[in-house]
Design a protein that fits this description.
Length: 145
């Protein structure tokens, strides 16, 4: 990416992405890492990771899909190793802003939603419908109690 060729809106978006990464970097670097969906098994077309901070207060879910598939089923990603008695609130829900994303996906946002650990581990979260290649999603949750 040539940062010098970005327009003002794109530059602002990059600044926001860097600021978010700086906030979640300790969890990614020092937290526990779990592979929820292996890129080496199944369809070989999707991957999902979970990071839990050292103190358990922050949980990060990353989901990647290489190629969109016509009429594909929605994917539910189930978390692991959460504190069973806790609830978690979504504080960031980001997805690639590819030209191919339809209006539903652009407007689908879980920020502010609260889930119990049981909901996240047994029912999971439904990933947005993917209608563009190389889609990626980042969901950051904070433990409430």
């Amino acid at each position: 990416m040539d940062l010098g060729k970005l327009d003002e809106k794109e530059q602002e978006e990059v600044k926001e992405q860097i600021a978010l990464y700086k906030k979640i970097r300790p969890t990614i670097e020092f937290g526990k890492f779990y592979r929820l969906i292996s890129p080496f098994e199944g369809t070989l077309n999707e991957t999902s990771w979970e990071f839990i901070s050292e103190d358990g207060r922050e949980v990060i879910l990353m989901y990647f899909k290489n190629n969109s598939e016509p009429s594909s089923r929605l994917r539910r990603v189930r978390f692991k190793y959460l504190e069973e008695s806790a609830s978690y609130q979504v504080v960031h829900h980001l997805h690639t802003k590819s030209i191919g994303l339809n209006e539903y996906v652009k407007n689908y946002n879980l920020e502010g939603e609260i889930f119990t650990a049981s909901q996240l581990m047994f029912a999971g979260l439904t990933m947005d419908r993917v209608d563009a290649d190389f889609a990626s999603y980042l969901i950051v949750l904070h433990k409430l109690h």
